[in-house]
């Protein structure tokens, strides 16, 4: 839980510190950034998948020695939606863990030259039946919250209940959490870090710079 958002899980896995140190370091070259970011996002994706009550059911299995009461995840009850472009990196990790999962894409871009301008929606392709699934919204960065809010609007517009959306995120900050929490408190957030805040260019501090540029080596 956090003072900035009513419905948030902040990961505390010990393995994150080393991985975050690598991806935050501005001298980490693109191939290494991708390598460490994928390891980090795989942990995030696993923890997000573990938090999908509508797609999870109790089950009993038998070990060679005894009964075990567990849980299983039904991939058919899940849809993973990325906010293109950076969100595609996290989507890749979710898909690796949930082969065959239904996928949607929403292209939303900020105008980096005018930080105050609202993020713009360019494209939205969502699968039929998404309104009956639990939606993992994938975007590694939550800064002002403008992009995530637009993506959530697009999901609501096709009938997805807000309570079925879980936002999976690598780094967020108080500004974005307060903005999203005010608009959509029912959308649960699973994040790997709450950073200090935003700078004048609306980049997260300390953050890691432009996630999409670094992950896809668009520099
Ligand atoms: C980045 C990031 C988020 C958004 C977060 O995307 O991936 O989608 O900014 O910022 P916000 O919370 O202030 O909206 P960007 O628009 O830079 O596009 P990219 O994914 O192509 O890098
Ligand atoms: N998008 C990024 O990639 N990084 C930030 O710090 C903010 C938005
Ligand atoms: Mg984006």
List the main descriptive attributes of the protein structure presented here.
single chain; 7-stranded mixed β-sheet; 28% strand; globular; nucleotide-binding; binds 1-O-pyrophosphono-5-O-phosphono-alpha-D-ribofuranose; alpha/beta; binds uracil; two-stranded antiparallel ribbon
So, CATH architecture? 3-Layer(aba) Sandwich
Query: How much is the average pLDDT?
Result: 96
Helix count from the secondary structure assignment: 6
CATH class, named: Alpha Beta
In what order do the strands lie side by side in the largest sheet? Answer: 1-9-8-7-4-5-6
List the helices and strands in order.
EHHEEEHEEEHEHEEEH
Distance from N terminus to C terminus (CA atoms, Å) equals: 36 Å
Q: Would you tell me which CATH topology applies?
A: Rossmann fold
Helix % is 25-40%
What ligands can be seen in this structure? 1-O-pyrophosphono-5-O-phosphono-alpha-D-ribofuranose, uracil, magnesium ion
Basic shape: globular
Radius of gyration: 17 Å
Structural class by helix and strand composition: alpha/beta
Largest sheet: 7 strands, mixed
What share of residues are in beta strands?
A: 25-35%
Number of strands: 11
Low-confidence stretches: none
Number of domains: 1
GO biological process, one term: pyrimidine-containing compound salvage
Enzyme class: transferase
Family: Belongs to the UPRTase family.
Pfam families: UPRTase (PF14681)
